[in-house]
Structures are given as structure tokens and as C-alpha cells.
Write a structure and sequence with these properties.
Blueprint: H1 6-9, H2 24-32, H3 36-53, H4 64-112
Length: 113
């Protein structure tokens, strides 16, 4: 699962004026390729960039325009979390279906003896 992590390395040097862009497309690509290591690297790089751009002690100093930009990032993060939740549920359903099929095949093989 060692995919191209260049997207993770591109998330650097941001300031409170402009929140780091959420790497949604790169995340979708990594997840579509089941490259969980790359997806995790992207999320970790974004988290580091957010922490660098807006240390906790500076959050109260933001002007209304900056606050709106950060709220926009939070909304995009929530949308992405919603998408990931749907994907997680779909994978769980597929896993349960696979387990049912496996039990059925095992029972058939035992019956055939």
C-alpha cells in the first residue's frame, strides 16, 4: 500500500489567513485504490498544516473573514466525514454478506461430506 504520497507533502506552510485546503480528491483517489497508507498520510499532513496555520492561542485573534474561511474548512471536513461514514457502512454490509456466503458454502461442503 505504499502509494504516491506527493499530495501529503504538498500540504505545508499555511497561515491563519487561509486554511490549508482539504485534499479531498487525493483522499478519494487513495481510498478508491484502497491505499489506506496514502489516505492516512494525507490526513496526517493536513492535520499538521491546520495545527501550524492556527495554533490554539491564535484562534481568538481571527477577524470575521478568517473565521468564515475556517468555518468553511470545518464544513468541508464534516462533508468528508459523512462520505467516509457512508463508505464504512457499505464496506460493513459487504463484509456481512461475504460472511453469510462463506457460512453457506461451508455448510454446503459439510453436507456434501
Amino acid at each position: 500500500m505504499a502509494g504516491d504520497r506527493s499530495g501529503a507533502e504538498q500540504v505545508t506552510d499555511y497561515a491563519a489567513d487561509a486554511p490549508p485546503p482539504l485534499p479531498v480528491e487525493a483522499l478519494r483517489k487513495a481510498l478508491g485504490q484502497t491505499d489506506l497508507d496514502a489516505a492516512l498520510a494525507l490526513l496526517e499532513a493536513h492535520d499538521r498544516a491546520v495545527r501550524q496555520a492556527l495554533p490554539a492561542h491564535e484562534a481568538s485573534l481571527l477577524d470575521p473573514r478568517q473565521v468564515q474561511a475556517w468555518r468553511g474548512l470545518a464544513e468541508r471536513q464534516q462533508e468528508l466525514l459523512g462520505e467516509l461514514g457512508v463508505l464504512r457502512d457499505q464496506v460493513a454490509d459487504q463484509l456481512q454478506q461475504l460472511q453469510r456466503h462463506q457460512r453457506g458454502a461451508s455448510a454446503y461442503l459439510q453436507a456434501m461430506g
